[in-house]
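Table S2 (text version). Query chain:
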Amino acid sequence: MDIWTTIKVLRNRGVSIRQISKQLKISRNTVRRYINTQHPPHYEKSDEYLQKSKWEKYRKEIVEMYYNKRFVGSRIFEELKSKGAEGSATGFYSYLKKIRQEDISNRIRERYETGPGEQAQFDWSPYTVRLGSEYRKLYVFCIILSFSRYKYFVASFDKTQHSVFLAIEGAFRYFGGVPKRLLMDNAKQMVEEPNPKRFRWNRRFLEFLGYYGVEPEVHRIRHCWAKGKVEEPFWYFENHFIKGGEFKDFDDFLEKLKVFTEQYNKRHHQGTNTSAVIRFEEESIKALNRDVRRDLGVYERIGG
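Corresponding C-alpha cell output:
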C-alpha cells in the first residue's frame, strides 16, 4: 500500500519510471504495474499464514505439551488431531518452530503459570558463610510452590541424597501437604542417567516420592530458564540474607533462616500481585495423613 501510494505521488510529480525504480529499489515492471493500477493492492494472507492461524487457538495446549510434558512435535500433532484440530503437519511444525523461537520470557509465562497444587520446584545453591569465628560451606535448599510462590528454605553441610530427602520432607511438613509434581535438575541424587535417550530416575528417589504420591519432573536439558520460579528466590536470598549476615553458629543460621522465610513469604510478589502467604490459601495441595505428619522419615524406611 505504501509503495503504491509513493509511486503514484512520484509519478504525478513527473519522476520517470527509471528514477522511481532506482529510488524505491524495485523493478521497472513493478513500477509500471502499480502506475497502471487504479486501486491500491489488496493483501491476501498466504497459505502458510492461514495454516499457522489454525494452530493459534491451540497455543496453550501446545506450550503445555512441549515444555511441560516434554512431548515431541509428532506426538503433539497426533494429540491435537485426535481432538479434531484442522491443519496440515507442515503448518503445525512451522507454528511450533515459531513458538520455540519466541522470547524466553514469553515461554516462561506460558509454561509456568501452573494451577493450585499442580507443581513445586526444588533446587539448591552453595554458600560460604561465617559461623562464629570460622567460615563454613553450606548448601541451602529451596522448595517453592509454583502457583503461590510459597517458599521453604533449609540448609545442610552437604548435598547428599539423605540431605535432599530431609529437605523435601521438611518442605512437605512446612506446607502441610504435597504437590502433584516436583520439578528439579537432573542431579545424581535424583537421576541415574540424564541422557534423554536413556533417561532413568534414581530408584530410591522414585520410592521416596512414590510414598508421598508426588510425580518427579526434570526440566529439559539446556532449558535452564525452566526452573525460573525457584532460581529467582536465590538471588533475593543471597542479597537479603547471606550478604552482611552474622551467625553465631549453625543453629543460629537455621533460626534466622526460618524468620527470613516467613518474612519473604509475606512480601508482595509483582508476578502474582499479592503475597505468597495470601496466595497459599488457594493452594489445593494434597494434605499429609496423620501417620506421615507424625513421622516424616521415609529415608530410613526405604533403606537410607
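Notes on Table S2: The radius of gyration is 28 Å. The longest helix spans residues 250-266.
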